[in-house]
Write a structure and sequence with these properties.
Four copies of one chain form a homotetramer.
Chain A (H helix, E strand, L loop, with lengths): L1 E4 L5 H13 L3 E6 L4 E6 L8 H4 L4 E5 L19 E4 L2 E3 L3 E2 L1 E4 L6 H14 L3 E3 L17 H14 L2 E5 L3 H10 L2 E4 L7 H9 L4 E4 L6 H13 L5 E5 L17 H8 L4 E3 L1 H5 L2 H14 L4 E4 L17 H17 L3 E2 L7
Parallel strand pairs in A: 7-16, 8-9, 8-15, 9-10, 10-11, 11-12, 12-13, 13-14
Antiparallel strand pairs in A: 1-3, 1-4, 2-3, 5-6
């Protein structure tokens, strides 16, 4: 339930509504907006009767939220949420930031080479896994804390913001310390304990859609993070599982406008996992921007043939540089522009 | 099996290869190319031994086609096939033609209004069903032959090429008479009797991907048409079925570069069925062009709220006109351009 | 809309209702039942206002059928429909008939060997394709009319009923002449022209579920057949397409009780296509009977390793004989029994 | 890589092989079998060259395991693994134990009523969630530790073994203390941190298949648990996600024989989640046993209409009692029997 206040409502009007909601056994959540304040009611997932609140002074309207998600919905907040993970790297506005880098951090020379290459081509943030969720326990599991230190080093050298994945509570606290944005991977999209943990941290979170998660489930998982008080959430389409083996995944670009209609959160796209094959990454990166994606996440490796993981879908640095040129043109065609960092450090 | 001839091979060299293939019990199919001729072998789906052919004069190379499709594959023909359905309406080249119009032909006034509207906005061909495959036998099944006559009328008035669906043998012959391109719908993608029928007609065919057809199955169905002698085939991605109810279909844009890599046939996209919801049609039409689609098929109705079918996914004429402007900009950004008809009639 | 008459309603009461429905512009369809008559209204797929009919003498109740299918639904006919394709071979009652045989008719000796083997093991009907829908135009397409004659020969020798597929109008008329039941394959489940054709023939039809058809779509396709006047329809689950490559198909046994709840038509299962792997056919055949399937369709080949098609999923004759023993035990456990033919001819 | 020793190999032969594997940089894992010992090599997921090991005394054969899973595979261990979670409750042998109970523990009276009811009908273990993974953060999340205490109470009263879910590390340690088997739910099937945690605990684990996990991924997730030293793992099919909304999930019974062929671990089935609709639970429970399932997990609630969660798929106690009678008959038909507890405590 959302209580929409009149534009002229006073602070005490708002307080009175909060008291009434508390008295009903729920938690009030006031949301000041540009023109008016809205007060949300947290702690129920059934319809409640708000008729007595409707009669309080300053109340314009009661909206019964029928959709299962609340704080992530456009009904709850009409304006886009912008998420700034570092100076100049903002998701959800007119800019389209590009995050690029290797699947995994493999060594100091590899991550620095990757960072300089993507920086030169125009990326504003660096990706690279220090903790890797792998289907097999015998596959390379990442460099762990040492990898995080290397990412921090790459940031100092290039000025790129850092986005990297956390797989459990301890990892989340570590990543929060070293990186600018905590990534929650597809396999953990419904790891609710982890979602609650990052909801309590005060750090931007990038939540990737699960391999067979519906758009509604993605939004409900984001709701777990927002319900703990953290609204700095970036959603990410990364391809889903279907019956067609012709691509590793099916890249669901419909999800971009769908999420943007239902939610105020920024929605970016990962064409590398979305296709799984190098020569389809560039066409799909262009398509994602044309569809209105609020950013891109792209795998680039200084030497893809030697990558420890995901080599087949990583771009060569030159391919990435060529792609960035095309993306600038596509973004312009729809009135947006690819984000750029102010100056090389 | 493909027998690639030297660039310098003579006509009698080629004839000798054809005779040898016939003597093996198969049918030879000579394919003259820009630089050299290739001779295909039709009538087998297992590996044959072509070692004695390799020794014939003028033979450069034997390629054993391991993929299950043959004539549709890039190995069989390296250059793009272009399909011209009417003067100025060519698929598979640098141009990106847009076919637009209502789901069904409903009346003379409706189809003429639609034709003038999409012509004015820049479409080069008119779509509109006279025979409608409907899940329920009690739903509107189309105007039949009368609808075809109205489409012909619309062509005379506007100069637009006509694309319309056939559902069975009789219908295919009728559509071939009235229209410029015969559409085979998703539900009939594996109706092999119908595919053979349109393979024997000398008329361009647009083959839509089945609701849960893999890319390989789409190409094998096209192979049925080519194997009967008709290579004027346009493929069409129209969204596929998945487990996410957030869109009517999932629009598989990965299939665009995938098909273009595997096959020389043009591949277009239908964002109307690909999304099923009006406000996602424009973003996905832009995305399809950015991904490299060789054309678009878009539902536009003069009055969508009164449409007999698919109203919810049909654009209003003004929305379509706005979209066409964006498409011109996107196509330019990737070095192509949206096809235009020479002059209003 | 269904008009349920009182048990005591007279013939003239029923006539009066039919006249009233005709006057509304629809076609009345009286359905005499064991206890009372119901009158259906054909020709609409929207809600109609039947309030004035409710007031007519003898009318007990009006049921507004909200589901998109009508004549196939349990609301339309409460009792199971039984479909007898030959003496002693009845689907939809207490008996569970087993149809068995090779994927394709390959030769006289092959089909006779198969027929005698499955007859000896207890099958009551013989399957075997004379017309084969194959993904590739270069694969074996069946023996055609000659194959039908061989099936007829096998029937004369063994007394088995014959079930075989038709792929187009001409084929349907031929199959109707030679066989006891016309099979419509998965790829043609939404070939509405063909469904209308077999709806006009007076021959039992076995309709297989499409590779990615929902239960609702299966029932709507059956509705096409019933709406043309043929209610002798057997439905068949044959596995569907999913994202898991561990089996060729996913065998959807949930569909058995689901269809039986929604419809009065018999629902059988094909564990051969439902699994695609020989060693899973027997467990899944047992499971289908335990789930309540009204019959089974099983591929058995006298020499699977030499089969022209589907060899990998065909049982050896001895495996089939062993399975039949298990099926008798499972059927007994749930109060049914596997159908048997009276005596060897 | 597996090193199969001769039946006559001595302990020092085996030790020598272990030393050789260690020298290659991997960890040897000797597996004594009924007839011979096999030594596994842990720590690689690529092919290694074992030719020098093949020449050591006592070595019969080297098997290169091409499949991505190792310790869970039948090649690694040919005999079924049996998992005994409490006296008389063994999975993987001839017995088919039935675990039943409510979705969630809701109160002392509810869980005790459920426990007595399922005990009376013949279940040997009680299910009931204390920690509940819910799509929405606003849904009932379970009673937590208090719920575990109530389960323990129910065990004391009825003698039923206890199976309940853990969602994170802390929860896993708590559940291990209170229950006989730790359940890992579908959403956490690829929560590798949690899998490693339960791999280190010495407690049986029931691992449910993810909503869109392939059979191979299920086995790889089990491999995470075995690779930490815990081979007491029961796998569970619980229905998967597809494009057909006619059931909540599609119950993939093919997975039963598929897993049993690939792995030595017991595989049970959960027809309650596998269907999501009460009236399909009994047919599918019967089908699962007929397909060879090594146990069942069934939701039964003393008053389903008042259940906090999953009420629509919970059986009434009387339905469950009726079903148990049918299951005894089906199990007998295939030479197994439904497990029974010795006597009421």
């Amino acid at each position: 339930m959302l209580v929409v206040m009149h534009a002229s409502a006073s602070t005490s009007d708002i307080d009175r509504v909060c008291v009434a909601i508390s008295a009903m056994g729920f938690q009030p959540l006031p949301m000041p907006g540009a023109q008016r304040t809205t007060v949300g009611l947290v702690g129920n997932d059934r319809r409640v009767d708000g008729s007595h609140i409707e009669a309080l002074p300053g109340v314009a309207e009661i909206i019964y939220v029928s959709s299962p998600f609340k704080q992530v919905s456009r009904e709850w907040r009409a304006e886009n949420t912008t998420v700034t993970i570092a100076p100049g790297v903002t998701f959800g506005g007119r800019d389209v930031p590009v995050i690029a880098g290797p699947c995994s951090v493999e060594s100091e020379s590899q991550i620095l080479a990757a960072a300089f290459a993507v920086r030169a081509a125009g990326a504003v943030a660096l990706r690279g896994g220090a903790f890797k969720p792998r289907s097999s326990p015998y596959s390379f599991q990442g460099m762990g804390k040492e990898g995080l230190a290397l990412l921090q080093r790459a940031k100092q050298e290039t000025g790129l913001a850092i986005v990297t994945e956390a797989m459990d509570d301890d990892g989340a606290h570590l990543v929060a310390e070293y990186a600018d944005c905590i990534q929650i991977g597809a396999r953990n999209m419904q790891n609710y304990s982890l979602l609650k943990t990052v909801g309590k941290l005060r750090k931007p979170v990038m939540l990737k859609r699960g391999m067979a998660a519906t758009v509604q489930e993605l939004l409900l998982s984001a709701e777990y993070i927002l319900s703990e008080g953290n609204d700095q959430v970036i959603l990410c389409e990364r391809g889903v599982r279907t019956w067609d083996p012709s691509s590793r995944n099916m890249f669901d670009l419909n999800a971009i406008p769908t999420v943007q209609k239902l939610s105020h959160l920024p929605m970016i796209a990962d064409p590398s996992h979305g296709t799984g094959v190098r020569d389809r990454v560039s066409p799909m990166a262009r398509a994602a921007v044309a569809a209105g994606a609020d950013g891109l996440l792209i795998e680039v490796h200084p030497d893809p043939n030697k990558a420890f993981s995901d080599g087949a879908q990583s771009l060569f640095p030159q391919q990435f540089a060529d792609l960035m040129g095309e993306l600038h043109a596509i973004a312009s065609a729809i009135g947006r522009h690819v984000a750029v960092l102010p100056a090389t450090p």
